[in-house]
Amino acid sequence: MGEYMILVVLEHDGQRLRKGALEAISRARQLSALGAIAGVVIGENTQAVAQEAAQYLSTVYAAEVGPYTPEKWAEAAYAAAQKSGARVVVASGGRQSRTWTARLAYKMKAGLLEDTLETSTDGQHIIGVRYSFLNRVTEKQKAALPVVFTAKPNTTPLAEPAGSSGVVEALEVGRPPTVEVLERLSEQKKGVSLTEATVVVTGGRGLGSPEAFAGVEELASTLGAAVGATRAVVDAGWRPYSEQVGQTGKTVQPNLYIALAVSGAVQHQAGMNKSKYIVAVNKDAEAPIFKIADYGIVGDVHQVLPALIDAAKKL
Ligand code: FAD
């Protein structure tokens, strides 16, 4: 057993740490009264990413296990927790971590707190706050150590480097996985990542056609924003599923969310109603989106959108 109490599983893209990793480090530091913090980089090209991570943490394990599978991630995180002696494992929340954190918690016989907004400790437990019931309720949960928890993206300030460089250690991961990935098709990403964007411009069915999304894209690229879509738009085949915001799509929490011809159904709201500022354009003054919007424009999107693009270009 090692000397660490907290282990951060550091999300990365094979080149660099992702924003979620820096949020997870911040969360771990908030619990530093429990003990020291180590990190683990799992996957491919882990040595290089671990070097970057060593600017933030005194020990970083590099677990070179190849392409992602939930089994391998759980196994590697477990090996790192064993080696470091960690009783608390922190990771960034999201679709990917949801596939391996339960496996890890089972291996560690640990409690699991998913998608926490904030976390604290009394020395024996982790107390986490999270949304429930489509973000309408917040609930506080308490789990006795050991605990695995995830931090909901965009809820925590990014960690700053520690000022001194830590050490990187290669980590052997024992058991080979029983499931082998034969082929992987990754989504073609262009522009800003939806879940990491500080500005999101979302188009709804009221735009009338897939072609009308050219205006949404133009406004988004002018503002350095990511493009989002409603499920109605995705189901119609106008936009890819990767852009869907909502209960069965992605959860976003940007500083600014611009909803263009989006009705604001409760299932859509579940993915965006925690945005800092919401601006809505809809021709129906009774559209539910206006109930949660900070600024609303009642009008035809085909007239308002070009004016928004012009205004954005002058910023
Ligand atoms: P609509 O509801 O058709 O709204 C279009 C809006 O555009 C209207 O408000 C209209 O007034 C306005 N409009 C029309 N023309 C113009 C114009 N010229 N100018 C300005 N405004 C105009 N939805 C999601 O988005 N994400 C999800 O993850 C999701 N998950 C779901 C899960 C379940 C289990 C279920 C049952 C539903 C889910 N839905 C989800 C679907 C959701 O209920 C709505 O059907 C969907 O969000 C509607 O999309 P929309 O706002 O684009 O379309």
Automatic annotation (TrEMBL):
Residues 6-189 form the Electron transfer flavoprotein alpha/beta-subunit N-terminal domain. The keyword Cytoplasm does not apply. Keywords: Electron transport, FAD, Flavoprotein, Transport. InterPro entries: DHS-like_NAD/FAD-binding_dom, ETF_a/b_N, ETF_a/FixB, ETF_asu_C, ETF_asu_C_CS, Rossmann-like_a/b/a_fold. The keyword Glycosyltransferase does not apply. PANTHER family: ELECTRON TRANSFER FLAVOPROTEIN ALPHA, ELECTRON TRANSFER FLAVOPROTEIN SUBUNIT ALPHA, MITOCHONDRIAL. Belongs to the ETF alpha-subunit/FixB family. This is Electron transfer flavoprotein, alpha subunit. The gene is etfA.
